[in-house]
Amino acid sequence: MRTYGEELIARGIKRGLKQGLEQGRAQGQAEGVLRILAARGILVDEQVRQRMLTCTDMAILDRWFDRALTATTLSEVLGT
Questions:
Q1: What does the domain layout of the chain look like in residue ranges?
Q2: Model confidence at 12: pLDDT above 90
Q3: How far apart are CA 48 and CA 31, in angstroms?
Q4: CA-to-CA distance for 80 and 65, rounded, in angstroms?
Q5: Is 61 exposed, middle or buried (0-12, 13-18, 19+ CB in 10 A)?
Q6: Rounded to whole angstroms, what are the CA distances from 16 to 10, 30, 55?
Q7: How many angstroms separate the CA atoms of 33 and 52, rounded?
Q8: What's the distance, CA 76 to chain centroid?
Q9: Of residues 66, 26, 64, the one with CA closest to residue 44
Q10: Structure pTM?
Q11: From start to end of the chain, where are the E strands?
C-alpha cells in the first residue's frame, strides 16, 4: 500500500510521461512537415521553421502535414 506522498509522486510521473509523449509526437509531426517541404523544394524561413517546431497543437500540425503533401507554396501549407 502506498502512502499519500508516494501516490502523488506516481501521479506526477504518469503526468510527466504523458506530457513527454505528447511533446515528442508533436515534435515528430513538425519535423515530418519540414521534411516533406524540403523534399518538395519549398523553402521555409527560420521564423516559420521555429513556429512549426514549437507548435504543440496536433490538429494544426496534422493540417500542415496533409497540406504539405500537395502544396506548391508555403502559404498553402499555412493557410495564409
A1: 24-78
A2: no
A3: 12
A4: 15
A5: buried
A6: 10, 21, 19
A7: 8
A8: 18
A9: 64
A10: 0.81
A11: none
Question: In this structure, which amino acid lies at residue 35?
Answer: R
In the 3-class helix/strand/coil scheme, how is the chain assigned residue by residue? CCCHHHHHHHHHHHHHHHHHHHHHHHHHHHHHHHHHHHHCCCCCCHHHHHHHHHCCCHHHHHHHHHHHCCCCCHHHHHCC
How confident is the model over 13-63, as pLDDT tens digits? 888 888 888 899 999 999 999 999 999 999 999 999 999 999 999 999 999
Written as nine digits, the cell of 62 is: 496534422
Residue that the C-alpha cell 494544426 belongs to? 60
Per the listing, cell 502559404 goes with 75
- What type of residue sits at position 12? G
Which residue in the block uniquely carries the three cell numbers 508516494? 6
Place of cell 497540406: 67
